[in-house]
Every structure is written in C-alpha cells, then in structure tokens.
Design a protein that fits this description.
single chain; mainly alpha; SKP1/BTB/POZ_sf; 131 residues; 7 helices
Length: 131
C-alpha cells in the first residue's frame, strides 16, 4: 500500500529515483500471493522490470488461484490475456520436455529390447547348434 502511494506521488512530482526505489522494493518482494497485484501496479506506473518479474511468477499460479483472485478479476482483458498466454507458454514448454523425455525413454527401451532379443537368438542358436 505504501509503495503504491509513493509511486503515485513520484509520478505526480516526477521523482524518478523514488519510483526506482519502489520498483526495487516490490521486485524483491514478489511472491505467488502478490504477483497479480504487483503486476497491476507495475503496469499502471510503467515499471517494466517489475512487469517481467511478476509475469514470470504468475505463470506458475494454478488457474483456480487466478479465477478466485479479486485483483485478477479487475484487470483489463488485455492484461489477463498476457498472464494466461505466459502460463500457456510455460505449460507447453513443460509438455515438450516431458514428451522428449518419454520419447528418449521409449527409444532406450526399444533398443534394450532388441539387444536382449539378439542375445536370446545367439543363445538359442548356440544351444541348438544351428548357425
């Protein structure tokens, strides 16, 4: 609350240093519980570095948290879209990582299965004497 008040004064009286200090303070205190509110403040006062930090934090919020967040409900649609877009990009990135791991694991299993099959063939061939 104090930072928002100070930012309003800094904006009105063109005190860039106060604005910068408030931005630094807020940046150090971004958490999942306040990132949407801080995003709104950063957007209102043009604090780009804080915008990026809050957007990064908000992408890990569960959808239910966003839907129940009163501050989120008050955000302009453009801002909601930006937050949701960032979440989707993070989820897609995670999905690609899982798919890549699953494919690598599957490939390794197939190779191991083929190797065992060849070994079994060699053992069978040796025991039957058939070349």
């Amino acid at each position: 609350e104090n930072c928002q008040f100070l930012l309003e004064l800094a904006e009105e009286y063109q005190m860039e240093r106060v604005k910068q200090l408030c931005c630094e303070y807020l940046s150090c205190n971004v958490q999942d519980t306040n990132c949407v509110k801080f995003y709104m403040i950063a957007d209102k006062f043009g604090l780009d570095s804080l915008l990026k930090e809050t957007l990064q934090e908000s992408k890990y919020l569960p959808l239910s948290s966003l839907e129940n967040d009163e501050v989120f409900k008050e955000l302009p649609d453009k801002t909601k879209l930006e937050i949701c877009k960032t979440r989707i990009q993070e989820l897609e990135k995670t999905l690609v990582e899982y798919v890549t791991r699953a494919q690598a694991s599957s490939t390794a299993c197939i190779k191991e299965s083929r190797r065992k099959s060849r070994q079994q063939s060699v053992i069978t061939t040796k025991s039957t004497g058939v070349a």
